[in-house]
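Methods, example record. To illustrate the input and output format used throughout this study, we show the complete record for UvrABC system protein C. The sequence lines were provided to the predictor; the line carrying structure tokens was produced by it.
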Amino acid sequence: MAQMSGYGPPDRFNEERATFTVRGSDTPDLDAGVAAIRNVLSTLPSRSGVYRMHDAKGDVLYVGKARSLKQRVANYTQVKGLTKRLQRMIAQTRSMTIVTTNNEAEALLLEAQLIKRYRPAYNVLLRDDKSFPFILLRGDHDFPRVQKHRGARRAPGNYYGPFASAGSVNNTLNALQKLFLLRSCTDGFFKTRDRPCLLYQIKRCSAPCVGRVGKEEYQELVADCRDFLAGKSTKVQAKLGVQMQAAAENMDFELAALLRDRLKALTFVQGSQAINAEGVGDADVFALACKDGTIGIQAFFIRGGQNWGHRSFFPQHTNDVPEDEVLVSFLTQFYEEVPPPKTILLDRELGEGMLLGEALGERAGYKVALSVPQRGDRRRLMDQAKRNAIEALERRLAESTTQARLLREVAELFDLPEPPDRIEVYDNSHIQGTNALGAMVVAGPEGFRKGQYRKFNIKGNEAATDSDVGMMREVFRRRFARQLDEAPDRDDGTWPDLVLIDGGKPQLNAAKAVLEDLGIEDVCMVGVAKGPHHGRDGREVFHMLDGREFQLPVNAPVLFYLQRLRDEVHRFAIGAHRDKRSKAIGASPLDEVPGIGPARKKALLMHFGTGRAVRNASLEDLKKAPGVSAGVAQQVYDFYHAR
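The corresponding predicted structure is encoded as:
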């Protein structure tokens, strides 16, 4: 069901129960890998569990589960029957970690947890950094609030989801406001109102904050909202129709008009479903498409017969992996945090379908059934999911082809030995040196890697005296000094193949000097500066480390791509600077005093009026402030006067 009070992984696994190690060179060696596995095999039980394969550095190469650990691991010693991919993995294996479980279902759940934690190079990976949004109908207030929610589901109330995107949630929340007039404001805002806000004026809230609706009447609206989200929209529609008819007969035409508008909103929602899911109830629908070695999976989220959005997924590391195995691995990782519905519809039978259903049901606390629809509404819905999966995959392949061509042109343009896999772009943002910060965005063949973006709060004195150049110097020193500490061998994929710097020769030379001081001389860096007309004509000037400068034709596709990278770092830097500036506006001098919480800070400000008055107050005056003990007064006094 869509309502969830909480969902999380079980805590019954001991992940370090036994470790077996065979040390050796980090050079791939098939015989050494087989020897390491044979050494582990001699001590393995014939029980279900999970195994992790490690390379010479201890990094996890692969996580697998097995009904019988001894039998499953023994297969890796028969290298002639294995794929080239698995042979490469075994050649890098130098040690293993074994964890036993009570049954195979528990092993499947633990496997998904460990894959998410370690992101192994040889496992199928669901690359999706964002958590799915839910709608939360709070349960800890006399007048419950309806709101969008991401993350852990700790707050009391009813959770409805998952939704495919924030847009799907926002559309549903707008419909709920029009239909049921529930409040969306925070509890603090609710307490301080003495007159209705704008949402009441535009008929999207019943204004319980000022008593325009009583508790019982509001609870009735909440009950209707629960029915709607549970798929009982017909019941809600009939109830509104009866109420509108009664209001009209009593000549309460204002109320009748309000109910009419709510009915119109409900009818619009029912008619705006892009996917016909009537009669399906609660279900997730998955269809897989494969072309040219790339796999795409289309997901539809149906709750109460309503479409709550759809999303395309493109798992990584799927070469030489059977499609059924990809789908099982995808589903176990997908439901690692998202609660499954009682019905999961698939476009194919899975060999481990019963095991997967058992594992998901064990975690969720109710029976989860996996099925392949054969006829009726469910079959039509599956056919639609298949079409969407194929179309999404074709778009992905077309985009990948274009992206690959652009990266080849970038490599030719900047004399790189091969198309870059990781591009880092840097920019600064400040207002006359205040709230200064640096920003880094990352792009690769698949597009922007937003989970790897970074911002740098500028701290050094040189930044204040040298403006953009000093800020860039500080950003590069911090970024690459840390890289040398964390990845000196440059083999973890976090070293850039190309660095773009928003700025001209001064910024580029500053970054070059920092890297030379650190002993780094082989990173390709390019300065991107505005042209003679300050970039209004799209003719950016590219500055190379060897002193060359050039411009590209205004209609060159590679120029558009580089401009897109530059615009993204602009957007990220300006947004981060705006957030920092907003926090600084609301900051108080008392924030610096250790041990002073919000309540005491408020008491001091209410008593003295300003932070400056607190700073200049005598010890005796501080002791007189209400709610401030002698110890706290001494602490505040010592903080300011010691300075």
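Annotations derived from this record:
The radius of gyration is 30 Å.
The longest strand covers residues 434-444.
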